[in-house]
Automatic annotation (TrEMBL):
Lineage of source species: Bacteria, Pseudomonadati, Pseudomonadota, Gammaproteobacteria, Enterobacterales
GO biological process, one term: tRNA modification
InterPro entries for this protein: PsdUridine_synth_cat_dom_sf (IPR020103), PsdUridine_synth_N (IPR002501), tRNA_psdUridine_synth_TruB (IPR014780)
Organism of derivation: Serratia marcescens
UniProt key word Isomerase: yes
UniProt name for this protein: tRNA pseudouridine(55) synthase
C-alpha cells in the first residue's frame, strides 16, 4: 500500500534568497520549499555552488 502524498500549502510570491557559498541552487530551493511547506516552487536560474548572490525563488503561481 502506498503512502498518501503529503499536501503542502498554496503559497504564492517571489522570495529573494541571498545564496551562501557551498549550497547549490536546487538545495536552496528544496530548503525553502520545505520551510514554507509549499506545493510548487522553482528558481529563475542556477548559481554555481561556489558562487554567492541573489537567487529569486518563485512560489506557487508567481
Amino acid at each position: 500500500m502506498s503512502r498518501p502524498r503529503r499536501r503542502g500549502r498554496d503559497i504564492h510570491g517571489v522570495l529573494l534568497l541571498d545564496k551562501p557559498q557551498g549550497l547549490s541552487s536546487n538545495d536552496a530551493l528544496q530548503k525553502v520549499k520545505r520551510l514554507y511547506n509549499a506545493n510548487r516552487a522553482g528558481h529563475t536560474g542556477a548559481l554555481d555552488p561556489l558562487a554567492t548572490g541573489m537567487l529569486p525563488i518563485c512560489l506557487g503561481e508567481a
